[in-house]
Amino acid sequence: MAGLDFSVVRALIFDLDGTLIDSKQDLIRSVNAMLAEMGREKLHEDTISGYIGHGAPKLVARALGNGAAEKEREQALRFFLAHYEAHKLESTCPYPGVAEALEELREFPMAVLTNKPVRVSRRIVEGLGLEKYFRVVYGGNSFDTKKPDPLGARKILEELGAAAGETLLVGDSEVDVQTARNAGTLAATVNYGFGTHDRVAYPADVYLERLTDLAPLLELPRR
């Protein structure tokens, strides 16, 4: 968005899936394994990709369809979470440039806010060697509400000692832009993620081809 001065940014909040890590294939395989376990037909990977970003319960519910009973959704969610926990790092890896970008940005207090369950999120961040960059990692079950509700982002702002207007939330979906707007932070969207994003309805303040675009945007070398 023209006219914004990103050099005011003093803290960063990152989404996880589709932003820092490419976890799509592991998620897709776990969803299709769940559907097979439940006696359902597998879904195309593009369909499943469109369901990612709102947390595991909603992902499972959407994959099962509207006709699923509550007991069936609960059973399916338990299977999905167990399967994903066991296979979470088979294909998942940081996107190109992510490690380099986080190293460049180490002077900023940084956090992860994802709608993925917190335990598996932290294990993935640790398994990929990224935990050293973040003060906190919060998931979709860390708070009473998930993104785009601003509760998690506001808690992170408190913990980082950062003002909303001096914080940039970086994600790949419209959920992340909505979260930024609701929390009063700036919003950046990466162009390489797999989250659903209506950019007309939910425009970000800036779009990034690679995460390494952040340091120049924040005028980091000048500091």
UniProtKB/TrEMBL annotation:
<dbReference type="Pfam" id="PF13419">
    <property type="entry name" value="HAD_2"/>
</dbReference>
<protein>
    <recommendedName>
        <fullName>phosphoglycolate phosphatase</fullName>
        <ecNumber>3.1.3.18</ecNumber>
    </recommendedName>
</protein>
<dbReference type="InterPro" id="IPR006439">
    <property type="entry name" value="HAD-SF_hydro_IA"/>
</dbReference>
<keyword id="KW-0378">Hydrolase</keyword>
<dbReference type="InterPro" id="IPR050155">
    <property type="entry name" value="HAD-like_hydrolase_sf"/>
</dbReference>
<comment type="pathway">
    <text>Organic acid metabolism; glycolate biosynthesis; glycolate from 2-phosphoglycolate: step 1/1.</text>
</comment>
<dbReference type="InterPro" id="IPR023214">
    <property type="entry name" value="HAD_sf"/>
</dbReference>
<dbReference type="InterPro" id="IPR036412">
    <property type="entry name" value="HAD-like_sf"/>
</dbReference>
<comment type="similarity">
    <text>Belongs to the HAD-like hydrolase superfamily. CbbY/CbbZ/Gph/YieH family.</text>
</comment>
<dbReference type="InterPro" id="IPR041492">
    <property type="entry name" value="HAD_2"/>
</dbReference>
<dbReference type="GO" id="GO:0008967">
    <property type="term" value="F:phosphoglycolate phosphatase activity"/>
</dbReference>
<dbReference type="GO" id="GO:0005829">
    <property type="term" value="C:cytosol"/>
</dbReference>
<dbReference type="GO" id="GO:0006281">
    <property type="term" value="P:DNA repair"/>
</dbReference>
<dbReference type="InterPro" id="IPR023198">
    <property type="entry name" value="PGP-like_dom2"/>
</dbReference>
